[in-house]
Amino acid sequence: xxxxxxxxxxxxxxxxxxxxxxxxxxxxxxxxxxxxxxxxxxxxxxxxxxxxxxxxxxxxxxxxxxxxxxxxxxxxxxxxxxxxxxxxxxxxxxxxxxxxxxxxxxxxxxxxxxxxxxxxxxxxxxxxxxxxxxxxxxxxxxxxxxxxxxxxxxxxxxxxxxxxxxxxxxxxxxxxxxxxxxxxxxxxxxxxxxxxxxxxxxxxxxxxxxxxxxxxxxxxxxxxxxxxxxxxxxxxxxxxxxxxxxxxxxxxxxxxxxxxxxxxxxxxxxxxxxxxxxxxxxxxxxxxxxxxxxxxxxxxxxxxxxxxxxxxxxxxxxxxxxxxxxxxxxxxxxxxxxxxxxxxxxxxxxxxx
Length: 353
Description:
Layout: E1 5-14, E2 17-27, E3 32-36, H1 43-51, E4 58-63, E5 66-67, E6 78-81, H2 93-103, H3 108-121, H4 137-150, E7 155-159, H5 167-184, E8 187-192, H6 195-201, E9 204-209, E10 212-217, H7 219-224, H8 229-234, E11 239-249, E12 252-257, E13 262-266, H9 267-270, E14 276-281, E15 286-289, E16 297-306, E17 311-317, E18 320-326, E19 337-342, E20 347-350
């Protein structure tokens, strides 16, 4: 049985320091939601509150209809997968996986059967009699995952589970975790600082900063339509250009930057554009051109960087320091005068904050 998780209006302190403020997250039955952010943003504190290792100052935590807020950790029936595996070094792989079943007083034959079934599912049945010291990092993480799943928890939580693995193994393991989570239909809360990991594994992602959720949405929506400048920068929109609309002609909008330079933008491709807005672009969404008829912001080029697929330029403009990409076929020299033209498919419209 799996259940939805409700975190409602949680506030938490470490001493006098507030680390979470009025935080709410609802994780649907069978959904995987990731908490994503830099160190100190509050994501691990949130997980520890749900696990029962910390107590909130205010707010409630429910799993289905069960109020977890003040329950001790051992009474919450949650599967946990830790960053450091947390395997018992003196127990075999099978005994590690069966540990939670033993605590639940299942008969020896039944727990051994279920432990072996789970080890077979994660591809480690042939290593059942080994000790943790005889395993690789990836194998240890599979054992930790099998141990968490074997108790059939209504909620599974991951605390930076792949950060100790090398890059290739991280990619392989995140695929395995997602496949196992989906196959079991387990509701899951996943903590990571790695954007690619969060986006590849999650149904929805909560981007956190300073104890608050800045945006909770699908990976596609976060990447294409960030809600504010913090999220925009977090997902790669390096350029934030303040603009004001000066003219509207059908779906075409003419907007002016603070230095007086103007841009033409299409609402058909960008969506509704308010009278004052921020145009957010990634570097590959700001095209560097010296075409005399190009519509764009005038710029002076600085440092040029070779990216393989394009040249990237640091650019000085009246609208601020911007970063744009140019063709490999026509590299520009530093100090060249060019224009920067937004590519609507790589832009987002933000409201001033």
